[in-house]
Each structure stands twice: as C-alpha cells, then as structure tokens.
Amino acid sequence: MYEKADQEKLEFIQNGLKEYSLHRNYDFGPKSRKNISNLSKYISHRIINEYDLIREILSQYKLQKVDKFVQEVFWRVYWKGWLEHRHEVWRDFINSIPSYSNEDYKNAINGKTGIECFDDWVNELKTENYLHNHSRMWFASIWIFTLNLPWELGARFFMKYLFDGDAASNTLSWRWVAGIQTQGKNYVARESNIRKFTNQRYMNIALNENALPLENHKIYSLNEVRQLHTKQKYKNIVLFESDLNVNGRQSFFENYENVYLLLLENTNRNLKLDDAVLNFKKTLQEAFKSEITNSKIINEDDIKNLNEGFDVLYPAIGENMDFLNREIKDINKLHFIGAKEDIFCWQYSKKGFFNFKKNIPQVINFLLHEDDLFN
Ligand SMILES: Cc1cc2nc3c(=O)[nH]c(=O)nc-3n(C[C@H](O)[C@H](O)[C@H](O)COP(=O)(O)OP(=O)(O)OC[C@H]3O[C@@H](n4cnc5c(N)ncnc54)[C@H](O)[C@@H]3O)c2cc1C
C-alpha cells in the first residue's frame, strides 16, 4: 500500500501538479481525476505524510509554482489545529445528531431526490468512497439549503462512506458550508457554477440559490491544546489508523517492545462506518504491520486490559480520542507523542485560515529545517 501510494504521488507530482491551479475546480467525473491528486485517502491516514509531501514538492518546485496545491494541503493542517483548540465543537456535533427518518432524508441517502447531480454524487460516494472537493461543497449546500436537511446528518453520511473521512476537515467544512463556521457566511451552490465546473455534465438544476446562513450564535472559546511529547516514555506504544506513517520512523518504533495497532469497530464509534471503509482501514493497518516487525494488531478489550502505562501516538480530536477518554480510567497516565510539525503548525490555527496563510513562510521554513519527527 505504501508503494502504491508512492507511485500515485509521483505520478501526480510529475503530471498533474503543474496544471493543478488551473483545473483543480473542475469535476470531470469519477473516470477523469488527473486534474487533482486523489491522494486524500492516503494523506488522511498518513500513509503519505502531508509534511513530507510538501517537503518533496518544494525540493522540486519553487513555492510560487505550486502554492495553490501547498495551500490546499495546509487547509487540512489548519482544520486539524482549529479543532484541537475547540474540542467542544466536535462534542456538540456528536451530541446534536438528530434521529431522523423522514422521506426527504431517505430519498437523499438513497440518491432518489430527482436532482440528477446530487443523486449521482450519492452513488459515487457509496461506490468510489470519494467525491471531488467542489462536489462536496455543492453536495453539502444542496443537502442543507435545497433539501432542508440537518447538516449534522450530512456530515455523518460523508463520514460513513469517505475513505478519507476526517473529523476536522469534514465537520468544519460542513459547518463552513452551513454558515456557522464563518458565522453569517454560507456557501450557496449555483446552477451556473455546477454547469461550468462539471464541464456541462449537469444543467438546468433547480436549486435554492437565495438561502440564508444557518444560525448558531454559540461562541467557542479556545481550550488548551493537549500537551504532546516528542520522546518515548513507556516500553509500548498504541497507534490508531489516523497516523500510520513509517517514513523515517523505523528506528523510533524499533525502540519499543511492542507497537500496538488499534482500529475501533463500529460498536465503539458514534459515527458508524461502511464495511468498505473499515476494510480499507484494515488493509492500511496490515500494510503497516508488514513494515514494522514489532507491531501487533490488538482490539478494544486488549487496550483496556493493558495494566502498565503506555505511549500513544496522538490520534487528534475524533472518535479515537473519544474512545480513550471514555475507556481508559486514568487518561493522564498516558504519554501522548506528537509530531513536531503538528505542534508547530497548530499554534497558527487559533483564528481564521487567512491568519494561518500569513504564517505559511514561517511554517515552510520550519518544515525544511526539521525533518526529524520525534527526536
Ligand atoms: C463538505 C466537505 C467535507 C469534506 N470532508 C473531508 C474529509 O472528511 N477528509 C478530507 O481529507 N477532506 C475533506 N474535505 C476536503 C476536500 O474536499 C478533500 O480533501 C479533497 O477533495 C480530497 O481530494 P484530493 O486528494 O484529490 O485533493 P487535492 O485537491 O489534490 O488536494 C491535496 C490534499 O490537500 C488536502 N485538502 C485539499 N482541499 C482541502 C480542504 N478543502 N480541506 C482540507 N484538506 C484539503 C487533502 O489532504 C488533499 O488530499 C471536505 C470538503 C468539504 C467541502
């Protein structure tokens, strides 16, 4: 899997990257994805580490030539950092998912709304486990403003099927479309925009183009980001599927007696995943296991029964962290290891993306001089 990811990455760097900024907004359909990288399923599990990707690209291109792509990768970093500073947003999302089963909702999740593009995207999501970024924006906008369905159900629906499903990018993007992330500013999908950027594949779609943003006046204050360490403390470490990076980490893992790999089953998740997504994650874990010889797959009971303290590769806010908070009696005894790059970047994620963007030169400077992740 690491090799496959590497090949796809090289193919994109050689053939797609130069034209990325010109064509990235077009969704030409599932059979034609050369205008974007399609790497998110690897990046979201760190089969490809986003910082290594940026370093690799900047070793070949000047930033000005590839800044749009680099910026998009930093959106992921930024969203993650933003959620780290506001745990409550994730908590509120999980706690406010309504139980809902009316006809409109059933039609939406079964791709039977009669809105051709939307119904096609539902099928694509279920069969390809991916949607183009622009289609995700249109989809979420139609879901919220034309079908009048709760955004939380849409966010859950995406998480169920996306191979790249990510607590921060997904939740915060849905909030952004709804107009509650940047309060008072919603994203309204327009027929003309869909027509143009699907290369005329979809035309004459009737949408609510005058929708107002949803209202949510709750102000989230900043919380302290969890303290992360860069050095080993215990003899065993637990990893989730959210960070399976092996590049440059072999000797770090070799210092442990055991590297335990844990993938939560649906019984331990608030947002249930489709079998295809769980199986994809299992394949990634297996790939890690064949790279790191002292690694073992464990289950939820095994971790609850680990009597001694252990290190945890920090899984970030989301289901995995919820599981640890719920099931480990003395969470403060765990020693959370984090990548230096995350710790550095997240300091710029307290405000809007514009503020993060202003600091990209400092971030890049840091990345180019700091490639020794944990030591
Ligand atoms: C409603 C909605 C939900 C989303 N949910 C997710 C999600 O669960 N997981 C996820 O990884 N992305 C999510 N995104 C962001 C984005 O759509 C995907 O990252 C992108 O489409 C992946 O395709 P790609 O790898 O070809 O991206 P490219 O355009 O080739 O971009 C390269 C990489 O940059 C990152 N990236 C690009 N755009 C964004 C963005 N807007 N936000 C965050 N990271 C970005 C991804 O890691 C991506 O692989 C969501 C966007 C929206 C509007």
How many β strands by DSSP?
5
Report the major sheet: 5 strands, parallel
Biggest β-sheet: strands ordered side by side in the sheet? 3-2-1-4-5
Bound compounds: flavin-adenine dinucleotide
Q: What's the gyration radius in Å?
A: 21 Å
Overall mean pLDDT stands at: 95
Helix content: 40-55%
Number of domains: 3
Keywords:
375 residues, DNA Cyclobutane Dipyrimidine Photolyase, subunit A, domain 3, five-stranded parallel sheet, globular, binds flavin-adenine dinucleotide
Any overview of this molecule?
The chain has about 375 residues and is mainly α. The protein folds into 3 domains: about 1-85 and about 345-370, no CATH class; about 85-195, DNA Cyclobutane Dipyrimidine Photolyase, subunit A, domain 3; about 235-335, Rossmann fold, CATH 3.40.50. The protein is about 50% helix and about 5% strand. It has helices spanning about 1-15, 20-25, 40-45, 50-60, 65-85, 85-95, 105-110, 115-130, 135-145, 150-160, 165-180, 190-195, 250-255, 275-290, 300-305, 320-325, 340-345, 355-360, 360-370, and strands at about 235-240, 260, 295-300, 310-315, 335. A 5-stranded parallel sheet has the order 3-2-1-4-5. Helix 14 (about 275-290) links the parallel strand 2 (about 260) and strand 3 (about 295-300). The chain binds flavin-adenine dinucleotide.
Structure, briefly:
This protein is mainly alpha-helical and 375 residues long. Helices cover 49% and strands 5% of the residues.
Task: Break the fold down into its secondary structure elements and pairings.
Layout: H1 2-15, H2 20-23, H3 40-43, H4 50-58, H5 63-84, H6 87-95, H7 103-109, H8 116-128, H9 133-146, H10 151-161, H11 167-178, H12 191-197, E1 236-239, H13 250-254, E2 258-262, H14 275-291, E3 295-298, H15 300-304, E4 311-313, H16 319-327, E5 335-337, H17 340-346, H18 353-358, H19 360-369
Parallel strand pairs: 1-2, 1-4, 2-3, 4-5
Helix pairs in contact: 4-5, 5-11, 9-11, 10-11
This protein binds flavin-adenine dinucleotide.
Residues 24, 36-40, 43-44, 72-73, 75-76, 79, 132-133, 136-137, 140, 158, 162, 164-166, 169-170, 173-174, 177 line the site of flavin-adenine dinucleotide (FAD).
